[in-house]
């Protein structure tokens, strides 16, 4: 049998083209970015997260912090603590789980440091709003462009994962320096509390 | 070459080509098509029954009552402390459960029901201590034996605005082969 | 009916096979002989001994995304109490710094990156992670100075080595094999032994709790 019949070659070429096309439809990062959407916002803004929503209500700088008010020994740092307070509104759909980080323009990634605190926002049951806070330990020389990021870690295939990025309004090193200079001596982590959604 | 041979060969080749194209197309888009598992994971109810009884994951369920309260009291008429914010209501659901043959039981079994409303909201139960009924199926003091029916109470905290929408409790069998989510309506 | 093309194809194939048959036979024979020789001479020698440097404390070294500055080690004995049996643990002190120049990410030291080498062919013992500022699994921020930390190892009650050896492992910033269809983005993993640090120990006995 002849191996190189035009029809055979044609079919081969067709499949190579098909493979290339499917590759083109997906972007380079098949694993991540083609299936993720990021919603951007600022402090005080209610950011939709599926049919749930997240608001960063306040940001505070502090030199030490207490994980709860009954603690007697404050936790110290050679850098600075940045507390981010939030409210999480829960809609009908299960928002799954997520991780939060702070990032800065220099590329640093900061994680929440408080012991016993979860690594992401835990959403309450439907119809309720939960408020809480994260504390991040941050390098004082790297604060410019500080952004609070929420990354969905569990989601369904085929549905784009929603991520959130909140600009914490530190546009320059001068602003950062002022914030560090005016940092409170101590921050007490508020207890998580739940209320009925208004 | 005979015309018929050529026709056969053409049919063969074309059908092979179509099959391969079909497989390729399916594999490309299958992630984006709905399948039973995804529908289940997204929270869809697969069956609606009345009060029951209904068998789910080798447990027979029957919904006995569903009542809204502003506070709960224990056997000594003392108020049970639980976290329920202003504007919320406590829903007490009583259900009869029967563990059937084939159910894995050691120190009881797990029997979890979630509360559901007509808008698709689902509430998980809150753990409460001091009620006159067991609130879980592994209660050593009030064990439920195989093939015997016991009554349990499940407590939920929901916003008051959701009460007129409540429809019943849902019970799941999340086994990959089964994927059932049964709604027992009130 | 066989076409002329097919006949020619078959002829060429036949020729090719014949022309190279001798070479193939020789190649196969050579491989067999080589295998036999290696087998008879006892195979390759397995590399014996340690493949990484052995250092003496105090010493500062970088392994993966951390910089360790080892200072001291202490064996702490906890006597038997009413409720607990006697226990011993080895506590190693070191300064720890996050030097993750790739990701600049806050991270806590994973316990298996420090391992006690008990010697005498015994299994390695993982540490419990780094405890700094009284917090176990303290999260180290990239860009901040080194923090004094300790790591604990559970040891047998009769453990009394005057010098202990701690194996330090470092993760590597590399990607999985993209050829296997895995993501070609690098990340920290594949920890590998970087050095062994020797520390002199002191023994301390904890007081009995009432």
Q: Can you tell me about this structure?
A:
The complex is a heterotrimer of chains A (198), B (186) and C (210). With 198 residues, chain A is mostly beta strands. Chain A has one domain (37-196): Immunoglobulin-like. Chain A is built from 2 helices and 11 strands. In chain A, strands 2, 3, 4, 7, 10 and 11 form a 6-stranded mixed sheet that branches. With 186 residues, chain B is α+β, with helices and mostly antiparallel strands. Helices cover 18% and strands 32% of the residues of chain B. The longest helix of chain B has 27 residues, at 3-29. The termini of chain B are far apart. The model of chain B has no long low-confidence stretch (mean pLDDT 85). Chain C has 2 domains: 1-46; 53-205, Immunoglobulin-like (Sandwich), CATH 2.60.40. Chain C has 1 helix and 13 strands. In chain C, a hairpin with a 7-residue loop joins strand 6 and strand 7 (125-126). The longest helix of chain C has 37 residues, at 4-40. The N and C termini of chain C lie far apart (102 Å). Classes of the chains: A mainly beta (198), B alpha+beta (186), C alpha+beta (210). At the A-C interface, strand 6 and strand 7 of A face loops of C.
The secondary structure category of chain C is: alpha+beta
CATH top level of the largest domain in chain C? Answer: Mainly Beta
Assigned CATH architecture of the largest domain in chain B? Sandwich
The overall average pLDDT of chain C, rounded, is 85
Number of strands of chain B: 9
Number of domains of chain C: 2
Provide the structure class of chain B. Answer: alpha+beta
What's the SSE blueprint?
The complex is a heterotrimer of chains A (198), B (186) and C (210).
Chain A: H1 6-25, E1 36-42, E2 46-49, E3 52-66, E4 80-89, E5 98-103, E6 109-111, E7 128-138, E8 147-152, E9 161-167, H2 173-181, E10 184-188, E11 193-196
Parallel strand pairs in A: 1-9, 3-10
Antiparallel strand pairs in A: 2-3, 3-4, 4-7, 5-6, 5-8, 7-11, 8-9
Chain B: H1 3-29, H2 36-41, E1 47-49, E2 54-56, E3 59-69, E4 88-99, E5 114-117, E6 122-123, E7 150-159, E8 166-173, E9 180-185
Parallel strand pairs in B: 1-9
Antiparallel strand pairs in B: 2-3, 3-4, 4-7, 5-6, 5-8, 8-9
Chain C: H1 4-40, E1 53-56, E2 59-63, E3 66-78, E4 87-98, E5 107-108, E6 114-117, E7 125-126, E8 131-132, E9 135-136, E10 139-140, E11 147-155, E12 163-174, E13 187-205
Parallel strand pairs in C: 1-13, 3-13
Antiparallel strand pairs in C: 2-3, 3-4, 4-11, 5-10, 6-7, 6-12, 8-9, 8-11, 12-13
